[in-house]
TrEMBL record:
<dbReference type="Pfam" id="PF00587">
    <property type="entry name" value="tRNA-synt_2b"/>
</dbReference>
<feature type="binding site">
    <location>
        <position position="515"/>
    </location>
    <ligand>
        <name>Zn(2+)</name>
    </ligand>
</feature>
<keyword id="KW-0067">ATP-binding</keyword>
<keyword id="KW-0479">Metal-binding</keyword>
<dbReference type="GO" id="GO:0004829">
    <property type="term" value="F:threonine-tRNA ligase activity"/>
</dbReference>
<comment type="subunit">
    <text>Homodimer.</text>
</comment>
<feature type="domain" description="Aminoacyl-transfer RNA synthetases class-II family profile">
    <location>
        <begin position="271"/>
        <end position="538"/>
    </location>
</feature>
<dbReference type="InterPro" id="IPR006195">
    <property type="entry name" value="aa-tRNA-synth_II"/>
</dbReference>
<dbReference type="InterPro" id="IPR012675">
    <property type="entry name" value="Beta-grasp_dom_sf"/>
</dbReference>
<dbReference type="Pfam" id="PF03129">
    <property type="entry name" value="HGTP_anticodon"/>
</dbReference>
<dbReference type="Pfam" id="PF02824">
    <property type="entry name" value="TGS"/>
</dbReference>
<dbReference type="InterPro" id="IPR002314">
    <property type="entry name" value="aa-tRNA-synt_IIb"/>
</dbReference>
<dbReference type="InterPro" id="IPR033728">
    <property type="entry name" value="ThrRS_core"/>
</dbReference>
<protein>
    <recommendedName>
        <fullName>Threonine--tRNA ligase</fullName>
        <ecNumber>6.1.1.3</ecNumber>
    </recommendedName>
</protein>
<dbReference type="InterPro" id="IPR018163">
    <property type="entry name" value="Thr/Ala-tRNA-synth_IIc_edit"/>
</dbReference>
<dbReference type="InterPro" id="IPR036621">
    <property type="entry name" value="Anticodon-bd_dom_sf"/>
</dbReference>
<dbReference type="InterPro" id="IPR047246">
    <property type="entry name" value="ThrRS_anticodon"/>
</dbReference>
Length: 647
């Protein structure tokens, strides 16, 4: 019986039943047969020597492809399990697999978990296995044999029960592990790998399950790629806002109080407060009216808005207040701003009506998803909603976008792309079912972008459930893409809440609602900036802008404190380091804390009325009169540190 296999270019060839991916590769060319690592049949990776039993689409996987890297890393996970099994008798195993940037295996043992100090020995054992040069073979095991083999491993036993009968897997010597997908036919390709870390991971990613110990690693085909990866990981570690937040005393999270609920220390609170004051002032100047609204509301509000139906899994359970009253911690601010709109009768003269708030929200995030300030359970959103007449939509959209780009300029955010996010018309469960509304709003959004002449790309299925949106995508410090700002058109909520305004004709009309966030949540934005700046915040944002160091406290401290008072009155954030420590130590610590300006005052400065100034990151200091220095720092703050204000 012949197999009919379709290649990526659309061509079709026949092969004998039971032919393998290797046979297919060799039929194309001898060189491809030598390069082949695995096959990809109907989108699934298969072992190179596995017999193909049905017609389908076939691809040959080589080391030059993303799939090839996945096969290499999957093999590394298998060898990791073999090494762990040899080193730690009685070790229990969860799942192990390749990931986008490496591989892992979950483990559990009674006498203390696998520790980071064990990694060198584990890596050495893996290298020993690889050097021995055994062949990994496709293999299977009956469910009955699996039950006996894993009688003392409840995790593998569960996986075996779920795998069917017989259980497919791979074998190397006496070691067997069941897994889906393809492994390398020869271990000689597994040369360049490293073990990176260990961390807790809940079994099946459920916080109610036992926590296992996950061993992480990565692998590449080339030594240079592994070296580059190590450099990237080191850079990621140095830019990690959680590490910097600890070192600069910006924030902390205390599990005893609540995971995902950050405490802002004075330094972090200063950065956040500076951003909040800046954004409120910018929005007020742009015509927004700032409000405060409650962090909880009657559950019926979110049923009317549709959040309860579409967003329930991300909302905290309602609080039963008795007598039928159910309160909900708000996941979004828009229903609250709708209540502000509804509180008065509105006229066409009121439109556009711009309402903004630094609104606190709560999200029911699972413990495993929480991360520093980037993923939290309580957050404050720089939120705003504009209510407009239909003919004001495009002009208001453009006004909002110009505000966002102006704010980006002040924060030196330059690498942005624009994504128009549309609904998936086939997904009627997720999206409000009104074809006319979606067609109209998506057309308006596109027309506004075309009028501005901005390049954008379109993404189906990325819209909010109530309307399309423009997502402004930025690059993080490590090159990952994330959404910084959004502008969303909404014809649905005004209809659901029966919003009206009195038009020129004296009749009631329905407004259009525009949702927008300029810099997202304070938590995520501070995390983003911390990593972008690597903790070296520009002067206008730095929690301490100037550290002043008297050479001798008894001789110079009065002069230093007088200068400090002048700078504080000028609105600057200044500290005096008068500790009984050596001068070099104090200067180095100011650099470690990444303070923009370090000022030293000794006898010469006292006599001349000057100060000795050192900028963060610079080796040389310069002399400057005290008044000129104060004016220079003020100018540095006033221009948002976009240019050197040194005089």
């Amino acid at each position: 019986m012949a197999l009919s296999l379709t290649f990526p270019d659309g061509s079709v060839k026949s092969f004998d039943d039971g032919a393998s991916a290797l046979d297919v590769a060799k039929s194309i060319s001898i060189s491809l047969g030598k390069k082949a690592l695995a096959g990809k049949l109907n989108g699934k990776l298969v072992d190179l020597d596995a017999p193909i039993k049905a017609d389908g689409k076939i691809e040959i996987v080589t080391k030059d492809s993303k799939d090839g890297l996945a096969v290499l890393r999957h093999t590394a996970a298998f060898v990791l399990a073999d090494a762990l099994n040899q080193l730690f008798p009685g070790l229990r195993f969860g799942e192990g697999t390749a990931t986008e940037d490496g591989f892992f295996y979950d483990t559990d043992k009674d006498d203390g978990q696998v520790a980071v100090t064990d990694l060198p020995a584990i890596k050495s054992k893996m290298q020993e296995i690889i050097k021995a040069g055994g062949q990994i073979e496709s293999a299977s095991m009956s469910a009955a044999d699996a039950k006996k083999r894993y009688a003392n491993d409840k995790f593998k036993s569960q996986l075996a029960d779920e795998a069917g009968d017989p259980i497919s897997g791979h074998k190397l010597g006496d070691f067997f592990d069941f897994n889906e997908g393809a492994l390398l036919p020869d271990l000689k390709e597994l040369k360049h790998f490293d073990l990176l870390s260990v961390a807790g991971a809940y079994w099946e990613s459920k916080s109610s399950n036992p926590m296992l110990q996950r061993v992480y690693g990565t692998a590449y085909f080339k030594a240079a790629d592994l070296e580059d990866d190590a450099k990237r990981r080191q850079e990621a570690k140095e830019r990690d806002h959680r590490v910097i937040g600890r070192d600069l005393d910006l924030f902390f999270v205390d599990p005893e109080v609540g995971a995902g609920m950050p405490y802002w220390m004075p330094n972090g609170a200063t950065i956040r407060r500076t951003i909040e004051r800046y954004i409120v002032d910018r929005e007020v100047a742009d015509g927004y009216e700032h409000v405060y609204t409650p962090v909880a509301a009657n559950l019926n509000l979110y049923k009317t808005s549709g959040h309860w139906q579409h967003y329930r899994e991300d909302m905290f359970p309602p609080m039963d207040m008795g007598e039928g009253e159910m309160l909900e911690l708000r996941p979004m601010n828009c229903p609250s701003h709708i209540q502000i709109y509804k509180h008065h009768t509105r006229s066409y003269r009121d439109l556009p009506l711009r309402i903004a708030e630094l609104g606190m929200m709560h999200r029911y995030e699972k413990s495993g998803a929480l991360s520093g300030l980037q993923r939290v359970r309580e957050m404050t959103l720089n939120d705003g909603h504009t209510f407009v007449a239909l003919d004001q939509v495009e002009s208001e959209f453009q006004k909002i976008l110009k505000l966002i780009l102006s704010v980006y300029k002040d924060f030196d955010i330059n690498d942005v792309t624009y994504r128009l996010s549309y609904r998936d018309p086939a997904n009627t469960d997720k999206y409000f079912d009104d074809d006319e509304m979606w067609d109209r709003s998506q057309h308006m959004l596109k027309a506004a972008m075309d009028d501005l002449g901005l390049d954008y790309y379109e993404a189906e299925g990325e819209a909010a459930f109530y309307g399309p949106k423009l997502d402004i995508q930025t690059k993080t410090a490590l090159g990952n893409e994330e959404t910084m700002s959004t502008i969303q058109l909404d014809f649905m909520l005004p209809d659901r809440f029966d919003l009206t305004y009195v038009g020129k004709d004296g009749e009631d009309h329905r407004p259009v609602m525009i949702h927008r966030g300029v810099v997202g949540t304070m938590e995520r934005f501070v995390a983003y900036l911390t990593e972008i700046y690597k903790g070296a915040f520009p002067t206008w944002l730095a929690p301490t802008q100037v550290v002043m160091i008297p050479v001798k406290n008894d001789l110079h401290e009065d002069y230093v404190n007088n200068l400090k008072d002048q700078m504080v009155k000028a609105g600057l954030r200044v500290k005096v380091d008068d500790r009984n420590e050596k001068m070099g130590y104090k200067i180095r610590e100011a650099q470690t804390k990444k303070v923009p300006y370090t000022v030293v005052v000794g006898d010469d400065e006292l006599a001349s009325g000057n100060v000795s100034v050192r900028r963060y990151g610079e080796d040389k200091a310069w002399e400057q009169s005290a008044p000129m220095f104060i004016n220079a720092v003020k100018a540095d703050v006033a221009n948002y540190s976009r240019k050197d204000a040194r005089q």
